[in-house]
Amino acid sequence: AQEKKIFMVQGPYPIIRRLLRARGWVERKLPGTGRQLEQHRGNQNKQRLQREPSNGGGRQREEEEQCDEDTNGIHDLMSYLVRDQLPNFIWTNFLEAIDRQLLQEDSVVNHYARVNAFTTKEGLCLSLQNLPWIEQADPNAFFPRCYRLGTMDDREAFIEDFRLTAARSLLKLALEEAGDRPVRTEQVPNSAKGAGESHISHPKHSTAGPGSPLYPELVEEALEVCKQHLGVLQHQDIDRNTPSPCRTCIDWDRFLQQYYCVAHEGARLVLTRQQQKQCQNLLQRLAEKLPQLDMEGKLNIWILKPGAESQGRGIICMTRLEEVLQLAWSCTAPSVQVGRWVVQKYMERLLTIFGTKFDIRQWFVVTDWKPLTVWFYQDCYLRFCSRPFSLRHLERARHLCNVSVQKWYKTSPDQDPRVPPDKIWSNKQFQEYLAQLGQADAWHQVLVPGMKAAILNTLRSARDQVGFRKGSFELYGADFLVGEDCQPWLLEINSCPTMSPSSAVTRRLCANVQRDTLRLVLDRKDNPTCSIGAFELIYKE
Fold first, then answer.
1. What is the DSSP string of 32-55?
2. How many other C-beta atoms lie within 10 A of the C-beta of residue 126?
3. CA angle 66, 70, 74 (to 5 degrees)
4. What domains, with CATH codes, occur in the chain?
5. A cellular component term (GO) from this record (predicted)?
6. Which of 38, 272, 428, 534 fits as disulfide partner to 378, beta carbons 3.0 to 4.6 Å?
């Protein structure tokens, strides 16, 4: 105790507890910790019995368990002796879980206050909207467009974005086939309702049914809207008199209903060769101004998320403006305050592996905010969906990669057998896969630099909101999708990334990142040259 080596752990972190004890630290136990530990050991023993064959391993296991019990007895005695002393190191699930009376001025804690400025969907959305005022960086280059539906300005901006995206998408659909031949599109449902397959619903006010032709006037309207938008993007509205492209003399309700017929219900689109050339030219010029033009696809799918939830709760994909706005203001999700939704452009064109969507969980640690000091972990892992990727079916099993979502789904029969059964890959396996695609350099030259830049820009955008505490640190888990060009796109940042392994890969990597985090925040204080494992310093002001 005199050496200031008393720690406290709250939550399921047996590795942290074991590593600190091995360093000679003594645990001050929280009330109920003993029961949690016994339950955890019981689960571990049950899993071990299931894994081990029943031939001769029994005696060795009994000896190990006896040794564990002896060691635990010693630790329990030491914990009893320090039960009234304040801890010097605290590792917990949430900062709010710590009794403030337990904190000393020099206590090391694994969380900062007010990080919801970038660790909630709503906070991240707002912080990155403000990024251009803080840094010379464009959030649209690494973060899919996002709006908070609870604020009027954002809601109006989303409605305008949805309309403009529909107009651009119509031009893309018009170019799918060359010549004056009609263009036909695949059918897509309007939204995903829960875990089941979605049904196709037809708009109530359609002016054309499935299969009926829509003539060049619709394309002309889309061309006119996109021309005006390009003019705005090129700063031709310096005199501020240029109207918004969405305030032109177009009946937007009718336009969107006809767009839905083309994009989602197979209605034919007829256009002239001159219009085709105009579409090509306009989309090329828009691509120079809109970093998300390729990624956004042509079906105008958006993903609606509760602003402060995690683990995929309440998330749904939608394709119709009126349904997004209706859901955001309904009480279909009792746990979400009305209006606390964010809506984000869904990445329709992304890199898949064996026809399956995946995302990347990337760890990093902040050890200081003044000056900002960031460490990037050089190992990470991929999380796969349990059904093949399809824009025709928008249910969660195909589109949400969270382990907490996918654990409820069995791998579907049409899934490629090369997708790992536990739906997890290491970054090393991903690098091998990229090499097979002829993209061996993509990991180190595109993906890693892109993830680092996105993380740093996000931290800079939110830094003034964070409650800084000297000596503390925090381990975060950032989630990225990968575009067809291998460019990473940030989805969210988690302040309490799970350390409960769901596979052999995560069992190894989660243990390693906890080990290396303790090296970084404890061992390095006494020995600046000690090993910090896979951590790399990527920024220090």
1. THHHHHHHHHHHHHHHHHHHS-SS
2. 21
3. 165
4. 1-32+67-109 (no CATH), 116-143+349-540 (3.30.470.20), 145-180+213-346 (no CATH)
5. microtubule cytoskeleton
6. 534
